[in-house]
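Students often ask why we bother encoding 3D structure as a string. The short answer is that it lets us treat folding as translation between two languages. Here is a chain of 389 residues written in the first language.
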Amino acid sequence: MMRSLPEAAVLPLPGYPTRRPPPATLGALPWGPWLSLVALALLVKLAIAAVGLAIVGTAPDPVTALASQWIHWDAPHYLSIAEFGYARSGDLRNLIAFFPLYPALIQALALSGLPLWVAAIVLNNVGGLLATILLYEIARSEGSDPAAFRAAVLFNVFPTGYFLFNGYTEGVFGAFAFGAVLAARRERWLLAGALGGLAAATRLTGLALVPFLAVEVWMARRRLRRVGEAVLAVLLPAGGLLVYLAVNWLVLGDALAFVQVQRDHWYHRLSAPWVGLSEAIRGIAWRAPWEKITVGASELIGGVTVYVTTAFAALRLRPADAAYAAVLTVLTTFLPFWLSIPRYLLAMFPLFLLLGRIRSLAVQVALTAVFLTSLLVFSVAFARGFWAF
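And here it is in the second language, the structure alphabet:
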């Protein structure tokens, strides 16, 4: 029998030393922490919007200013796909590099009468709030409530947390991916696989859920009641990629058309990770001052972080978490040019599980202060149109 997501949030996973919560009733749900985290996330979003509006000055229409500030870089591409679909020729042909689910959701929500840009921001913000609660529940199933709360707080004040506010996919992807992880923790295999498929139809990094689910199923093999469902769950995230390949074939007649587009326009091709590492280091030396930070130092820090996270996940977390971290690390660093790794870290849930387990109050305060300060700085930069991952 299928169980609701609230039920899945409180039922323990057999076979692991997890805390045993009370029976799955509405009254037993952790409404207090959930509401506190939602309130915190909304305050962070309000702060991001406020600093953006503050730099507008005497703009006659703050709403228009809001749209112009937070629909930068990749965001207009998603809106273009939502409005016109994928193009077969011209420069717009290159938008095949973007996965289809987020634009489809934007288009669907816009049927309510919302402008496309509003629909994009609403989806990402709602997704970010859901991802916050799901991350809290993932962490809560593995440790103490305070550690889980800290993990969710750090997720929201992370230096690239403004990507949970603007017209990007981070919030939507986080909701699908973290939902898949939590469902797998509860051994709700079909739900986990379905959410994994949605994540993989949103971004390529959703493929990290394939090995994650494979390892979780293997670890639970002695308790499996429906082996077929578990095997199907492992395959469903790959189905999200197949949908994207089908879009490539239908639009451009080549299921792998995106590969050439990524190679030609985003310099994405398979490469040894030390190539991207050396480029990031060189970028610190020769780029303009702001790019020394964003294209050089931040990518270097982000690259090191994914490897350190993978190593500690292998030592301190579940094998499936380490598998997820390892694949995400490969997808983001086995490239000749490291790009947007700090943004991709928002999907690295093992990082936040590990950070939340740090018990030192001084370290937590320092992390929160550094994260929040960086978040506000990068938010202003993004709102002004500068490259910020």
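Translate back mentally: Residues 1-23 have pLDDT under 50 and may be disordered. Keep this in mind for the problem set.
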